[in-house]
Amino acid sequence: MNEKNEVLVIGGGVVGVTCAVELQRRGARVTLVDRKEPGSETSYGNAGVLATSSLVPFNNPNLLRNLPTLLKNKGVGFRYNPSYLMSMVGWGAKFLFNARRARYEETAAALHGLISLSATEHGRLLREADITHRLRSNGWIFLYRNAGSFAGSALARQTYDRYGVSYKLLSEREIADMEPGLTAGFHRGIWMDGTSSVDSPGAVTKAYARLFAGQGGTLARASVSRLRQLETGRWQAATAGGDQLEADRVVVATGPWANDVLASLGIRVPMAFERGYHMHFGTRNGATLNRPVYDVAGGYVLAPMEQGIRLGSGVELNDRDADPDTTQLDICERTARAIFPLADRLESIPWLGRRPTLPDSKPVIGETPGRRGLWLAFGHQHIGFNTSAGTAALLGALMYGDKPPVDPQPFRAARFI
Q1: Which end of the chain is less packed: N or C, by CB atoms within 10 Å?
Q2: For 229-273, what is each residue's pLDDT tens digit?
Q3: How many Å separate Cα 394 from the centre of its chain?
Q4: pLDDT at position 285, please?
Q5: What is the largest distance, in Å, between two alpha-carbon atoms of the chain?
Q6: pLDDT (average), residues 341-354
Q7: DSSP-derived pairing of the beta strands 188-192 and 235-239
Q8: Per-residue pLDDT tens digits for 119-158
Q9: How many CB atoms lie under 10 A from the CB of residue 344?
């Protein structure tokens, strides 16, 4: 092993863990450092969906049409803190700029490539970690309550058709046949039949971390407070506990905390936070859910998980560290109870996650301009679990000079740094 082949990966979420496994596979001596156990933060609380349908970003042309309604701040799927939104005017303007049709098409193409790559890489990792039993391959369903709501999916369906994303349209009867536990009828459904999901994204991330450690990787529990490059060209990370970690290269994969790690280098990437909540429930009368379902008008996802039925709320645009506000989740719960027999809450406190979103809805993947050896992998918004393994494969190829498996240009750090 080359003595100058030490890599420090900062961030124990699914992006950091998959990057660590990939770089280890390429022969690097890798240390993975995080303040908590792998998979304990944002990677724990998502819907566990590995979906090619996620190529449609939130800032698409429909956003411009729906903006007046969204700004009333009375919807369920999207809420915002007015003072936070005012402080992010510059970010918001760029976010809206990227909702234009031409920019949307560029984003969809880039995300399609990354998601497709990630599906293949996740399949390999699930086998290597011996956890394929956690994978379901029966898709997920978008549920529409009326004809108007279904008509609003036209842009998404056109995009699916363009990129060969597999789906089937469902009638009310077909929805009921596939998910008999649903107690209310829906006008139409879109079954993303080419989609997979897992029964615990947190457990999957932890299994990937065990795979990494079992193959000789080093797991370190610490909070990185400062980065600096030494005169030798190596990188040094100072931890809150006073320790110093050194490596030839460093990967910052800390999601919503990326700017905190990069601040000591004078680097700040324009980032906002799509916060989201979830709660687990039991079911009444033996009801079951076979796959994740997304009630589009209700603004929530119900997903069968190892812990119970996970109810996940929509987007709350707010400061990363603002106090929790469970209003959105409470509304979602009332609506969900009308369509599925949820029993009692299984936890006393709802989970809150922070999802890092960049103005063009694409992550940063690659080396930092002018900072040789400083690599970035963050900004995956609400599809980090979905795109993590593909991110790792792309980053590994770029770091070791191989032909990139997808076009790296849409994800380059130079667009913000």
Answers
A1: N
A2: 999 999 999 999 999 999 999 999 999 999 999 999 999 999 999
A3: 17
A4: 93
A5: 68
A6: 97
A7: unpaired
A8: 999 999 999 999 999 999 999 999 999 999 999 999 999 9
A9: 8
Total count of residues recorded for the chain: 417
> Average pLDDT for residues 90-119, to the nearest whole number?
97
Dihedral pair phi/psi, residue 53, rounded to 5°: -70, -10
Per the DSSP assignment, residues forming a β-bridge with 252 are 10, 376
Amino acid symbol at 30: V
Q: 188-192 and 374-378: which strand pairing?
A: unpaired
| SS3 letters across the chain | CCCCCEEEEECCCHHHHHHHHHHHHCCCEEEEEECCCCCCCHHHCCCCEECHHHHCCCCCHHHHHHHHHHCCCCCCCEEECHHHHHHCHHHHHHHHHCCCHHHHHHHHHHHHHHHHHHHHHHHHHHHHCCCHHHEECCCEEEEECCHHHHHCCHHHHHHHHHHCCCCEEECHHHHHHHCCCCCCCCCEEEEECCCEEECCHHHHHHHHHHHHHHCCCEEEECCEEEEEECCCCCEEEEECCCCEEEECEEEECCHHHHHHHHHHHCCCCCCEEEEEEEEEEEECCCCCCCCCEEECCCCEEEEEECCEEEEECCEEECCCCCCCCCHHHHHHHHHHHCCCCEEEECCCCCEEEEEEECCCCCCEEEECCCCCCEEEEECEHHHHHHHHHHHHHHHHHHHCCCCCCCCCHHHCHHHCC
